[in-house]
Amino acid sequence: MKLKMMAALALLSTGLVVSGCDEKPAAETDDKKGAVSEAPTDEKGEAKEDKKDEGATKAPEAKEEVKAATIGSVAPEFALTDEAGKEHKLSDYKGKIVVLEWTCSSCPYVERHYAKKTMATTHETVGKEDVVWLAIDSTKTVKAEENKAWKAKEGFAYPVLTDASGKVGKMYGASSTPHMFVIDAEGKLRYSGAIDDDVRGKAEAPKNYVIETVNALKKGEKIENSETKPYGCGVKYAG
C-alpha cells in the first residue's frame, strides 16, 4: 500500500496525470483532426491582426478616353469663360461660321504669328461681321488675367477663352498652338490644322488654310484642304 502511494506521488511530481497526460493544448494544431492553431499574440498577449493586405495598392482607375471631333461631324458644344469673365457657348453662334484658334501667349510660334499680325490679318480678311473668331487657351496653368493683359498688349478684339481643364481642347483634338478649326454655319467641323503652310516663317506669300476654307464655305465650293498637319508648341494639358 505504501509502495502504491509513493508511485502516485512520483507521477504527480512529473506533471502528468492519467486523465490528460497525452492531450495537446486545446488550440494547438492537430493535422489529423484539423484543429485550428492558436492565433499569434503580441508582446502584451493580445491577438495580432492579420496585416497581409495592409498597404495593398488599388489598381488605378482607367481614364475615360475622349474621342476627338472629326471633319464633317457636328462640332462639340462647349461653354467657356473669356478673359473678361463673359461666357461663350458655341451654340450662341449658330448660323455663323466660327473660327477656333488654340493659343498660348508664351509659345514662340504664337508670338511669331502675332508679331507678323497673321491672326489679325486673317480675321480681317475672312470678315469680322459674319465670321466669329474665338481663341482658346487650354494650358493647364492658364490664368484669365494673363490673357487679358496679353490681349491688351497685342490689341486684338476677339475673346480668349479659358480651358484650364483641357476638356474642350481634347474634344476637338487640339494638339498644338496654334491649331485652327473652322465650323460652318450648320455647326459642322469643316477644317482642322495649321493656320498656313509657312512652318519656318520664311515664306513671302504663305497659303492661309483658314482663309481658303472660309472663302470656300461662303461660295459654296469644295474645300481643297479640310485637314492639314498643325505646327507649333504642344498643348500643355492638365493630367
Briefly summarize what is shown.
24% of the residues lie in helices and 15% in strands. It has 239 residues and is an alpha+beta fold. It has a domain at 92-198 and 206-234: Glutaredoxin, CATH 3.40.30.
Written overview of the protein:
Helices cover 24% and strands 15% of the residues. The chain has 6 helices and 9 strands; from the N terminus they run αβββααβαβαβββαβ. It has a 7-stranded mixed β-sheet with strand order 2-1-5-4-3-7-8, covered by helices on one side. A two-stranded antiparallel sheet has the order 6-9.
Which labels suit this protein?
alpha+beta, 7-stranded mixed β-sheet, two-stranded antiparallel sheet, 6 helices, globular
Strand order of the largest sheet: 2-1-5-4-3-7-8
The share of residues in extended strands comes to 15-25%
Helix/sheet category: alpha+beta
| Oligomer category | single chain
Distance from first to last alpha carbon: 93 Å
- Total number of helical segments? 6
The major pleated sheet works out as: 7 strands, mixed
CATH topology (level 3) name of the domain at 92-198 and 206-234: Glutaredoxin
